[in-house]
UniProtKB/TrEMBL annotation:
Originating organism: Beggiatoa alba B18LD
GO CC terms of this entry: cell envelope
Keyword ATP-binding on entry: no
Keyword tags: Coiled coil
Cellular compartments annotated: Cell envelope
Name of protein: Multidrug resistance efflux pump
Tagged with keyword Ion transport: no
Coiled coil, from the record: 87-178
Length: 331
C-alpha cells in the first residue's frame, strides 16, 4: 500500500495521471498539488420553470430538450382564437363608445345648426317688417286715419317677433355647446371602462405566447402540442448559463479560510485543470450529520454549504450534478 501511494503521488506530481484517477486520488488524500484542503461538491443550477399564466391548449412547442436559445426566442404558444375574437369585439365597442362621446361633445350636426340659423334669419326679416309696419301705423294714427287698436296689434306683433328671435338665438347657443356636462362625463366613463376591457383582452392574447426571458439551455420539455396545460403548470425548463454554480461543503475548521468574493480552484472529471470560480454565498447556518449532538467530539461533523459561480463561458461546459473537487491555493 505504501508503494502504491508513493507511485501515485509521483505520477500526480508529474501530472501523468488521467483526470479520473486524479480526482480519485484527490478525494483519497484530501490534497491537490500544493493545496492544504480539498472540499467535495457538485454542480448545481437554478432553473427557470416557464409556465402559462392562463390555462389553454398548446398549439405548438417551438423548442426541444437540450436546445440553446437566446433571449426572446419563442418557446411555446397556446391556442389563441377565442381571445383574438374577444379582442376584436372589445375594440369595436371602444370605437362605438368613442364615437358617441365625440358626437356629444361637438353638439348638433351641421345640418341642424344650419336649419336653426335659417329660422333666425327669417325671424329677423319678420321683425324688421313688423317694425316698419308699426312705424307706418303710428304715423297714420297721428293723422287719425286708423284706430288705436290697429297700432296695438302691430306693436304686439313686433314684441312676439323679438321674443321669437331671442328664443332661436338661445337654441343656437345651446346646440353649439353640445350635451350636458353630466352626460359627457358618463360617456367618458364608458370609454374608460371599455378601454380597460381592451387592455385586458390584449394582455390575454399576449399571454398565449411565451418567449425566453434570458439566454440559456432548454433542459426539459414537459408538455407537447395538443395537450391542455393548466395555469402555472411548467411547459419547459430553462437553465441560464449565469445560473450555474458550484455547491460544496466546508467543515467548521476550514470555514475561516473562505470569504465572499474570493476565488477558488476546482476540477472535475474530463475538465481542464486550474478552473476557477468566485464564492457568491456562504451559509449562515450549519448542517449536521446524525446524531446531532453539540459536543467537542462531534464538531467535526459540522459543515457549511458554500456556493461559487464560474464565468459564463466556463459554465456552458459544466453539467448539473457533476461532481467537483474544490480547493484554495496556498499563497
Amino acid at each position: 500500500m505504501n508503494f502504491l501511494a508513493i507511485a501515485l503521488s509521483f505520477l500526480l506530481v508529474q501530472d501523468s495521471l488521467p483526470a479520473t484517477l486524479q480526482s480519485w486520488w484527490t478525494t483519497l488524500t484530501g490534497q491537490v498539488n500544493n493545496t492544504t484542503n480539498v472540499w467535495q461538491g457538485y454542480i448545481e443550477g437554478e432553473f427557470i420553470w416557464l409556465s402559462p399564466t392562463i390555462a389553454g391548449q398548446l398549439a405548438v412547442v417551438n423548442v426541444k430538450k437540450g436546445e440553446i436559445v437566446k433571449a426572446g426566442t419563442p418557446l411555446f404558444t397556446l391556442v389563441a382564437e377565442p381571445d383574438n375574437l374577444a379582442l376584436q369585439e372589445a375594440e369595436q365597442k371602444l370605437q362605438a363608445a368613442q364615437a358617441r362621446l365625440a358626437d356629444a361633445q361637438k353638439g348638433l350636426r351641421p345640418e341642424e345648426l344650419t336649419e336653426i340659423k335659417a329660422r333666425i334669419a327669417q325671424t329677423e326679416a319678420d321683425l324688421s317688417l313688423a317694425q316698419t309696419e308699426l312705424n307706418r301705423t303710428e304715423k297714420l294714427l297721428q293723422k287719425q286715419a286708423i284706430q288705436q287698436e290697429t297700432v296695438d296689434i302691430n306693436r304686439a306683433t313686433l314684441q312676439r317677433q323679438r321674443a321669437r328671435l331671442n328664443e332661436l338665438q338661445a337654441q343656437l347657443n345651446i346646440a353649439q355647446l353640445g350635451s350636458r356636462n353630466d352626460a359627457i362625463r358618463a360617456l367618458q366613463a364608458e370609454v374608460k371602462t371599455v378601454q380597460a376591457v381592451v387592455a385586458q383582452a390584449h394582455w390575454r392574447v399576449a399571454q398565449k405566447q411565451m418567449t425566453a426571458p434570458i439566454a440559456g439551455q432548454i433542459t426539459e420539455v414537459f408538455h407537447y402540442a395538443g395537450e391542455w396545460v393548466a395555469m402555472g403548470s411548467p411547459v419547459v425548463a430553462l437553465l441560464p448559463s449565469t445560473q450555474i454554480k458550484l455547491r460544496f461543503f466546508v467543515s467548521e475548521t476550514g470555514l475561516g479560510e473562505l470569504q465572499l468574493g474570493q476565488s477558488v480552484n476546482f476540477q472535475c472529471d474530463g475538465c481542464n485543470n486550474s478552473l476557477t470560480a468566485t464564492i457568491s454565498h456562504i451559509a449562515t447556518e450549519a448542517e449536521y450529520t446524525p446524531p446531532i449532538i453539540y459536543s467537542q467530539e462531534t464538531r467535526v461533523k459540522l459543515v457549511y454549504m458554500i456556493e461559487a459561480r464560474p464565468s459564463v463561458e466556463l459554465a456552458t461546459q459544466l453539467h448539473v450534478g457533476q461532481p467537483v473537487s474544490v480547493w484554495r491555493l496556498e499563497k
